[in-house]
Fold:
Amino acid sequence: MRNPPKIPSESNSQEELEQHISQLHSYIDFLDEEIEESKKAKVEEIQLDLEEVEEKISQISGDFQSIQDRLESIQNRLEKFNEEYLQQYGDGPSEEAKDKFFDAAGWHPEDH
Structure:
């Protein structure tokens, strides 16, 4: 389900509109899962890099600068990941986006 379901025409019944709203909820759940999987993959990649650094630390005999550089790189990636996530997803959809969604669906939570 890569694309949102199409909005039904105005002549549809209440049942069809409720079905469309259900499809939209399913689509939102799908998007949430995609976001989580993407976040998880990035975090796992960073975790693997960190484990590799830990392994190298146990094997080295004095070249700490290369380890320090790698740790700084991992730290920077984690900070960038957090910043991008907050910028991109912050507190979820904006109020404007929510209103547009509810207008398109013809349904508002305040009405129910």
Q: What stands out?
A: The first helix runs from residue 14 to 59. The chain is about 75% helix and 0% strand. The radius of gyration is 23 Å.
